[in-house]
Amino acid sequence: MDLNSINVFILTHQLGSFAAVAKQMNVAPSSISRMIANLEQELNTRLFNRSTRKLTLTLAGENYYESVRPLIAEMDALHQQLSEETSSPSGKLVISASVSFGQIVLAPLLTSFCEQYPRITLDLKLSDSRIDMLSTQVDLAIRHGKMQDSSLIARKLCNINYSLVASQNYLQHKSPICHPNDVIAHQIVTFGYEAFNHLWYFQSQQSRLKLAINPKLTLSNALGIRECVKNDFGVALLPDWAISQDIKVGHLVRLLPDWQVTGLDSEPGIWLVQPSRHFIPDRVRVFTEFLFENIATITF
Predict the structure, then answer these.
(1) Fewer CB within 10 Å, N side or C side of the chain?
(2) Residues 109 and 257 in one domain
């Protein structure tokens, strides 16, 4: 069996066309089509439905893809791991993270990491949308909130505390906030995600309550929310890693300090996510270890 043909089959499904695969591999599209046809002939089954507009997997193709993809991924990782045993960690490490966490938390750590591992190159993909780790060939993703995809391997990096904040100038011109119910009278800016945009939960030593909110503005980005609040837009619920410095210098004020505030996720955290637990390349392993060692140095 030609492993190269299987790799081309996997890549064709992930990229969606012979032309896209050919461009990535720098070969003619006809050679990719021929390799898929030869593989189909060898398996005596059709793997793709072909049309002038797109390629889609047949049922047999879907079953074949789900079977061979993890095997090929583990084989590639094993080859990489064996080659790295004779040298220091090297190669390209692709990391996915949210825009705000990447800028505020990750970026300041990367100089130190690259000094320790000069043979590793980093590709940091910052997006506030969850990307498909397999189709985009991401080695490690940093994700917030509950993990929903059980096919991925998740390990909690740290717990996160959220705080209710506003600017001093905004508070001087508005009614005081002494109790969670007082928040309703204020203009709210928050994340557009379901976990944050309609219910906030408040917990104190004496009581717990659920507050329905009606945001004036929703954003997908913690940096954007923070800037709105610093410019007197209203009240927001933000993670401490995004606001600790602004609170320290007085740009923001922490409200209701005796109350713990969360969205729908009562135990918010940040997770490191990998496609597989088997044959983890050294470049992924050392970056993971580096994050766990250095995350405690970040002021949350």
Answers:
(1) N
(2) no
Query: Could you give the CA distance from residue 24 to residue 36 in angstroms, rounded to a whole number?
Result: 16
Number of C-beta neighbours around residue 288 at 10 A? 17
User: Is residue 167 classed exposed, middle or buried when 0-12, 13-18 and 19+ CB atoms within 10 A define those classes?
Assistant: buried
Task: State which amino acid sits at residue 177.
Answer: I
Q: Name residues whose C-beta falls within 8 Å of residue 129's C-beta, 6 or more positions apart in sequence.
A: 220
Range of the domain at 166: 162-262
- Answer for the pair 282, 140: CB distance below 8 angstroms, yes or no: no
Domains in the chain: how many in total? 3
Nearest to 25 by CA among 169, 15, 171: 15
The DSSP symbol for 106 reads: I
69/130 same-domain check = no
208 or 137: which leads in pLDDT: 208
Confidence band of 83 (pLDDT split at 50, 70, 90): low
Residue 130 gets the label, from left (phi > 0), alpha (psi -120 to 50) or beta, of beta
Per-residue model confidence (pLDDT) at position 137: 82
Q: What is the pLDDT of residue 60?
A: 92
Whole-number Å distance between alpha carbons of 75 and 81: 10
pLDDT band per the 50, 70, 90 thresholds, residue 52: low
Count, in order, helices (H) and strands (E) of the chain: 10, 15
Within 10 angstroms of residue 47's Cβ, the number of other Cβ atoms is 21
| DSSP E strands, the chain | 48-50, 55-57, 91-97, 120-126, 140-144, 153-159, 162-166, 189-191, 199-203, 208-212, 217-219, 236-239, 253-255, 260-262, 269-274
Answer yes or no: do 139 and 186 share one domain: no
